[in-house]
Amino acid sequence: MQIRRVKGDKFTAVTLLTGSAQSGALEQGKWIHRYIDENGIKIDAPALIEMYAKCGCIEKSLEIFNGLREKDAACWTSIICGLAKNGKASKAVELLEHYACLVDLLGRAGLLDEAEEMIERVPSENNEIMIPLYGALLSACRIHGNVEMGERVAKRLADIESSGSSVHTLLANTYAFADRWEDVTKVRRKMKDLGVRKVPGSSSIEIDGMSMSLLTVTEINIVLHRLMKQLLGLKEKGMERENLVLIGL
């Protein structure tokens, strides 16, 4: 192309960068990078990030990533995967937490398809990376009542972490929000068959100097009624206790 004085465009540049990345030709990739800068060719940053990462020059990938004013899903995916493949697991996990936040924000905003698309761009070889991403999306499915996607995401999570209670609980809650109580029962039965137990949530309150821990139960009105009754009984008897634990009221 240079001999014939044909100027390359962004498509040519990306193709050459991809070839350099696949063959591990770092010096050739650097030359293409300089050519891009010298000729003012605008290309997508992930192509450069991936080229340097696949050629073992992960620090240059980080330099390019950190220098970006705006980072889209492709940029995040490229740098996280590049770090993981170059043995920078701790840094990859650090950036992954930010990535998971993006998935969570999209999910909470109701942009479930966009959130799922972001996750699909991440290679699934590392299960530890996928669990928080799918967990955030499944939680969003529950909030917005998207049962179809919730079932799909829950299956993927179950394949990764079948012994965890959170995936089953979130799926059951998704069914409950959609008034699909038969499916809720099926999930609960499956949890029982698998020996999966949900650890009940708890909260603490302080009344008249007494610290109290209250475990979450289904019939909250009954719990509150018995709690108030017990508190009134304690005050009448003049009893003072630093800690009162109510379990299974």
UniProtKB/TrEMBL annotation:
Keywords: Repeat
GO molecular function: RNA binding
InterPro entries, sorted: E_motif (IPR046848), PPR_At4g14850-like_plant (IPR046960), PPR_rpt (IPR002885), TPR-like_helical_dom_sf (IPR011990)
Presence of the UniProt keyword Repeat in the record: yes
Record Pfam families: E_motif, PPR
A GO BP entry: RNA modification
NCBIfam families named in the record: PPR
PANTHER family xrefs: PENTATRICOPEPTIDE REPEAT-CONTAINING PROTEIN
Stated name of the protein: PREDICTED: pentatricopeptide repeat-containing
